[in-house]
Amino acid sequence: MMAPEPNFATRIADALARLPGWEAGAAQIALAAAPVASPTHRAVASDCARVRRDGADPVFVKRRHADMAADICPAMAEATRRAGALGLGPALLAQGEDVVVLADLPEPWRYARVGDLQEANTMAQVLGALRRLHGAEPLGQSFCPFGRIAALAAEARACAAPVPDDFAVLLAEAELIRAAIAAAGFDRRFCRNDGTASNLMLRFDGGGLAPDGVRLVDFDLAGDFDPWFEIGALLNEAYVFEPERRQAIETYAGRCTDALLARCRLYGAVDDLMWGLWGIIRAVTSRRPGLEFFKYGQWRLRHARTTMAAPDFELWLRRL
């Protein structure tokens, strides 16, 4: 594992010192997840530490970076707490302005890779966990990927980010998707709004994924929205071909219609555009060296462009 920055432990200790009863003192502080922007998009918004105090069980501490403050939705802590109470994520033990303390998920728990999601039983368990989350009581705070894209576009212009030549075209096509989704309608549910494989924790035993071997982590974008956005983003992460997408949709919903497939494909493009803009902006606004934000952003924009240029793009818009 990559060694932490020299002041990593100090940042974690200072964050804990601001939480009543959680002063680090003589705690052992270790790097829990090294930051990687490309290709896994993991641990870039927060320092991630495993902390052990006075012989107690270790806890997982996330301390948000100042340059990522705009990327965290207001419902993050409450969503994390509720998911933990539902047994869908690690329990929230404490929270502060820029820090959360979570129950640790030690080995054999590990973060998911894209290849894990391509195994049918693993995807079925992940979809089952998301179905339970989406069936829970709404958070009461909304999320909108289209609104986030608009805000990121404005930020890109303000910071002179290196946007692609077809920037205006991508935004216009996202607006077509927004209008089509709005016309078709949807029910708002409690969602993470996250399809990244590394924001899933898996526990394997000798026979494969253990029963109840999925936990949802990272609720930075949590809010009430169309659950098919999260499903579409997840399938966009995991699959290339239509039969696998159709099977996953049927696993989640009990059926797969052309309208649901179209919604997932379009939401996949929206998620790609949102994170693509984020990547090229953070390449300019974040001063942390060694993180390939621009590479990640370029890849996600390319993926969005490919979906929006697909022969069936207009058909998907009509089928919603």
Structure in a nutshell:
The protein is an alpha+beta fold and 320 residues long. It has helices spanning 8-17, 76-85, 114-117, 120-134, 145-158, 167-184, 227-238, 242-253, 258-285, 293-308, 313-319, and strands at 28-31, 46-52, 59-64, 92-95, 99-103, 109-111, 189-191, 200-205, 208-216, 223-225.
Q: What's the domain count?
A: 2
Largest sheet: spatial strand order: 1-2-3-5-4
Please bin the fraction of helical residues.
40-55%
Poorly predicted parts = none
- N/C terminus separation: 45 Å
Order of helices and strands: HEEEHEEEHHHHEEEEHHHHH
Structural class: alpha+beta
> What's the tally of helices?
11
Give me the CATH fold name of the largest domain: Aminoglycoside 3'-phosphotransferase, Chain: A, domain 2
Q: Which class of the largest domain in CATH terms?
A: Alpha Beta
- How does CATH name the architecture of the largest domain? Alpha-Beta Complex
Strand content: 15-25%
Largest sheet: 5 strands, antiparallel
Mean pLDDT: 94
- The coarse silhouette is globular
| Total beta strand runs | 10
Radius of gyration: 19 Å
What is the name of the CATH superfamily of the largest domain? Aminoglycoside phosphotransferase (APH), C-terminal lobe
